Every structure is written in C-alpha cells, then in structure tokens.
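Q: Structure for this?
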Amino acid sequence: MSVTEAPPSETQQGETSVSPRPSLGSALRSAEFDMRTLGMLGLLIVIWIGFHILSGGTFLTPRNLWNLSVQFSPVAIMATGMVLVIVSRNIDLSVGSMLGAVGMAIAVLQAEILPDILGFGHPAIWLIAVGAALVLGGLIGLLQGVIVAYVGVPSFIVTLGGLLVWRGVNWWITSGRTVAPMDSTFQLLGGGSRGSLGEVGSWIVGVLACVGIVAILLYDRRQRMRYGFKLRPTWALVTLAVVGSAAVLGAVWVMNSYYLPENVAMQLAEERGIPWPEGGLKIPMGISYPVLIAIGVMLLMGFVANQRRFGRYIYSIGGNPEAAVLSGINTRWTIAKTFMTMGILVGVAAAVTVARLNAATSGLGTLAELYVIAAAVIGGTSLAGGLGTIPGAVLGALVMQSLQSGMVLMNVDAPMQDIVVGIVLVVAVAVDVYYRKRAAQ
Amino acid sequence: MRSLRTTWALMVALALVLAACGGGGGDTTTTAAAAPATTEPAAEETTPPETTGTTAAPVEPGGTEGDITVGVSWNNYNEERWARWDEPAIRAAIEEVGGRYISTDAGSSAEQQLADVENLISQGADAIIILAQDGTAILPAVESALSQGIPVVAYDRLIENPGALYVTFDNVGVGRLMAEVIYEMVPTGNYVIIKGNQADANADFLREGFEQVIGEAVANGDITIVGETYTDNWDPALAQTEMEQFLTQANNEVDAVLSENDGMAGGVVAALEAQGLAGQVPVSGQDADLAALNRVALGTQAVSVWKDARELGRAAGEAAVAMAQGTPLEEVPGTIIFDSPGGNQMVSILLEPVPITRDNLNLVVDAEWITIDQLCQGVQPGTVEVCG
C-alpha cells in the first residue's frame, strides 16, 4: 500500500550508492531516465522499422509519417484524459459514443442550424461549433462524474450506460442520416491539404519547443537545488537537452519534407496568382493542426497532472483513496472534475474527427473507447490506480496507430488487424507487469 | 497480486466493451412497436365475421384482410434508411389492407435476432419479414417459422433457405452499374476497390458486379488494381484511412475508385480532397445518401446508385401480405428464380436500381428523395442543371 507517485523521481534518493564502475543500468537510473518510456520508444522503433521493411519502404516516408501523425491525434487527445480517469481508479467506457454524439451535434449545428441564422460560410461558425463541442463534452462528462462521485454508482456502470445512451443520441439527432459537408474553416482542424502550419511556422514551433525543453530542465535543476534534492548528473542533463531538441527538430524536418500534393499546390498558385514553374512548386506541409492541438493538449494535461493541485490530488486519490479523504482532499469534486476534463477532451477529439472526415456519421467514434483505454494502458497506466503518465499515454496511442496504419499499408485484412492489435495490447501490459514486479522486489 | 488483478480487470473490461458495442443502441430505438396495433379491424366492418377465430392460430395462417399481422425483424434500426424509407413503406403496404405491423430490433446482434423472430411468432405474426444481421445464423429461426406455416420474406439480405422469398435490389446489378459508369470514364489506369463488411454477402455480390465490367480489362492489363480491401462495418472513417494508405502506396497514381457504398465514398473523397484529387478521380457509391447526392452535384463523386427503398419496402410488404393470405411462394407476383451462392434456387423479387449521375439528378428531386437546397449546397451556379 505504498503511495506511489506518477513520476518516480523523488523516491529514490540515497538508494544508488556510489559504486566505482557503474553499470549502464545504474547509470541510466541515476540520470533518472524513465526505463519504461525508453522501452516503449524501443518498441515503437522496432515496429516502425519492421513495417518499413515489410511494406517495401513506404512506412518511413515523410508522407506516411505525416498521415500517421494526423490519424493518431484524436486518440492521443483522449488518452491524456483517460490516464487521469484511470489513475483515479475509475474508467470511462463512454468516450467513443460521446465522441459520436458530440460530433453529430456540432455537425448539425454548423451544417444545418448556423448557416440559416448567420449565413452560409460565416467566419464565426467554426468557433461556435468548437465551443459547442467543448461545452457539450464537458457537460456530459460532468454529469457522468457527478453520478460516479456523489451518487456512488461505479464508473464502470455509469459509463457503460453512457456508451449505450450516447450512441443512441448520436443516432437519434438525425435518425442516422450522415451530415456533410462541414464549414470550410472548421475543416482545417482536421488537417487535410491546407490544415497545417507550413514551413516557417513549423520551424518556429520547433525552435520554441527546444527552448522550452532547456528551460524546463534548468527550472527542474533549480528547484532541486532549492529543496536540496539529488541533482541529475550534468551529462544526463546535456544528453536530455540534445536528444530532446534533436527529436523535435527532426520531427519538424520530416513534417516539412512532405510537400503539398501537386494538385493542391497548383490550385494555391492559381489563387495567389503565382506562375507555375517548370519543375513544379514544392511547398512544405509542416505540422498539421490536429497534431498541434494534440501536442498542446499533451503539454497542458502534463502540466495539470504534475504541477497543479488538481492533478496531484488525482494521483493521491488513486494511490490511496482513504488517505486522500483523511488528508482533507475533496475527493468527490476531484473525481467529478476528472470526468469533466475527460468530456472536454472528447469534445476536442470530436471536433478534430468530424473536421477530418468532413462529415458526421451514425457510427462515428465506434470502438474509440477501446483504442483510448488501450493507448493509456500500453503507455503504462495501471488499472489499479495511482500510476500513469500523460506522455506515456501519447506514446501508447502512437504505438496503436502505427500498428494499424502499418497493417493497412501492407494490405492486411481487417480481422487480422484486430487479432494483432489485441495480442500486442495484452503482451505489452504483461511485459510491463512483469518488470514492475521485478522492480518492486 | 495487484498486477494479476490489473490484467484480469483489463481483459474483462475489454470483453465487456466489445459485448456492449455489439448490443449497443438497441434500447434506444423502436422495439416491438405496439403502437400501430390501433389499426381498425373492428371499425372496418367489411371483413366477414367468421374469420375472427383464426387470428391466434399459427397453424392456419390464412384468413383474409383485417386480421393479418406482419412482423418485421430489423437487424439494426440504427441506420439512416430503415427508419426513414423502408419502414414507412412496409407499414403502408400492410396497413393498406387493414393489416397490423409489429417489429423488433436486434441491435446488430445475431443471437438477439433469433429470439426476436420467435417473439414475433408468439405475438401472432402471420408472415415475417427479416432483415438479417447474419444470413446463416438466422436459419434456425427461419426453419422454425416455415415449419409452423408462417411465410418468411428475406428482406434486402439473402437468407439461404429456399422456403423464404428473397426481396432485394439486384446487388450484382448495383455493382455492375457502378462499375459501368466508372469504367466508361476511366477505361484504362489504376483502380482502388473499397469493399464493405466481409461478413456481408452484399460486399461480394457488388464485387462480382464490378468483375463483370472490369474483369476483362484487368486480365489484359488495361486496368491495374493498386489496392483492394474489406472495411469493417462499412465504416467511413476507416475507408478514409485505407484510401490515404493506398494513395501513399501508389504515390497518388490512382485513376478511379470503386467504393461499395456512399458512406465509404465520403471517406474516400475526404482522402482525395487532402491530395487535391477530389473531382479528378471518379468515385462510385450507392444508397443515394443525401450527402452523397450533394457530392455528385459538386462533382466529387461520379455516381451513386439509387435503390429507392420505398419500392423495396412496398414490394416486401405486399408480398408478405399476399403470402399471409395464402398465396403460395411460387405464385407471388413478380418473382423470378435466383441461383444463390449457397446453391439454392431462391424465389426472388429483384428490383432494378437507377444510377444517379450529374446528368439525371432531377430524378431524385422529382421523387422528393432530396430537396433542391440539400442537393445544391455549395454548388457553383450554372454547373448542374437542377441547381440552376
């Protein structure tokens, strides 16, 4: 019954005694590299290289990686919230259906209601639609959270009910009719050929991210010095900063190496009156908006989970609910807020999904709960509560999506895809459980 | 211990999620509609009085109009067309002769549908129309109904029992029509084929229709199929991902897409749009979904094969009524013999679908299937005749 905190950083001071020749493992430990994150990165690299070879060299191309990044965004966005829900010893099975209901509602709002009031193509339509998605998602989440926290119905049951209810609502809004097309500005949220930052913007984001990484490392060091915690060795700091920045800039470079499809570039040139050059125009895509949203959500949620009282309360509730109550935490309100956060994130994901498909359908979001929960769990979130990280869940989502789109690229049929994804899920968690046990001894 | 619990909890959770999805939505739609029982067998005193005793006896499903009950077993009412077009048409055909319409919804569950059919029989149905979730799994229920002398109509989806009447649009024909339109536009080049759910026989019928048109061109190399896949649950979002991957693989060298329905065509067009290819690569579809007809008007989809579900519903309703009144299977008007893939000689009513392209959009408008506003949203003036 140990109160384990999410980043197992502060728990090990003094454990690593000075040994003359440290092994690689202990060196990594003293540098506080998270072994499970490293392990997952390793898994991801194996999957990527494996698919690259099996697909005859199409997997690791800028184009495919760009597609992959867009496809994974909605699941990643929701997985960050699912981590908190699971950490608090709850579960949310309703996210897929909620996505369907919210997505359908905002699609009807922007395609059928608002154009009548504001006029077709009004610039405020997309903002109202996104706002409505967040509010609706938040309200649904809050409702479920209140039933869980204040009425005391187990979250499994509440959200199982939600899974049925919101799926029904999704159908009921239009009697199953597909709603399309979406507002043209709104569509940018889903990526597509124009829904990205472009070259310069992407580099700016990349450089800002590098500055951010260094700043966070330095801030962390200062805080440790202030409270007299053990410091990371300098080599570790430098490695982290260099590797982190290189990864970010590399990702930006990949995104920028995917050029606008020729037809789109041609349309663009025509619109702006640029003459079409001989060899064609090479306009880099850059980071797409859904990915930008996913990264933003990840940073925000990571901050909330680690730095804000709300986040810390969730981890302490998950670690030991009784202790949390006794120490004066308003556990009920915290739980309700956790579900509300999940709901808002579902709203974000709904907006991205609908924008990407440029339509809302009756099956929208079917089985998404499965992928979201799987992403969180593969990312190291423990269903027993108290353990789990936001970046881990995002990595988990990336693993899941890589598997899926890799198999489509190889022309694997749908039933086989399900089998593989299912097996990987169980094996990943089994390995995780094994290492956690060993680490505990 | 904790870790063991974790693994178990996860597995149970996922199993439950799956189970829940299978049965999802069933509760939210119309189940066993008792409401239409208000049709007036008493008010219309035209019926001979001596027939009243035969209602509850399934052994003698005859009787004349006024006390006919037709039960419909929907597999999944959660789809646009059933509630909007099929059900009203079936209901109208039954109620026209003073019959009673009852229904159940299986919520995509084959097991549930078995129970549903039994339930309809015990509610006193004199004929049963089944939209099968699974054409094989439903067989025991069909046999049981037939053995009690209750005629069965296999609605839109094949049930491999020669005792049932198969009422559908000619699905191979639908596939053929789609492929003919596309083939005429693109006689040579790279094709992508996006098929529907693997467990649905229609996915293969449609594919067979494609084959009849493009088979020869594929064999002699004029057409290359650069991607072909089934799509779980005919899911549009999945079709979009598949299309993106095919485009990546073929480096955008795709000249035509045969998509087996309109929903998936929507996903395909979204993927093409992202590459600036929408409108240049012809895409097929069927069902005449409103969004798809809008795409046809916009020029991003080449064809949507229209199967007027109202006609199908009327044909099935009328056939069910006729059989409930004692017409033998072979003598139902308009039937032909269809050789099923399972080797059965099915007595069938096969209706002719209509391919809707940019040139005949007036058909769907005239039939009040879609309004001009819905059809012409975002269409440049002067490009399509109906839109002005």
